[in-house]
Specification:
The protein is mainly α and 100 residues long. The protein is 73% helix and 0% strand. Helix 1 packs antiparallel against helix 2 and helix 2 runs antiparallel to helix 3. The radius of gyration is 17 Å and the shape is elongated. The N and C termini lie far apart (45 Å).
Length: 100
């Protein structure tokens, strides 16, 4: 019985963490510019320091999500958590390799 309560606590904490990550990502996406350079000009192809910082932050969020899902898989042994963890690892490896 104690093990079930521990699992429920891990699940609740993980879901809260994923919710916080989602809110912070949405809030960041609503920042000024939304992909356009200042003054309505198209992007120049070069990333600004702010854009690089944003990408690095998103990469860390993906790593955190991967760790959460793999931890949930270890606790619950549900394949969906393993699949989500692997998917987040794929995103980290494919979407952010140029940002070091």
């Amino acid at each position: 019985m104690k093990s079930n309560w521990k699992r429920i606590g891990v699940l609740a904490a993980s879901m809260a963490l994923v919710g916080v990550m989602a809110v912070s990502t949405v809030a960041g996406a609503q920042g000024p510019g939304n992909g356009n350079a200042p003054g309505g000009q198209p992007p120049s192809g070069e990333l600004s320091e702010a854009e690089i910082e944003g990408l690095l932050y998103m990469r860390e969020e993906e790593k955190l999500a991967r760790d959460v899902y793999l931890t949930l898989y270890e606790a619950w042994e549900l394949p969906i958590f393993h699949n989500l963890g692997v998917a987040h690892q794929d995103i980290v490896e494919s979407e952010y390799p140029v940002i070091q």
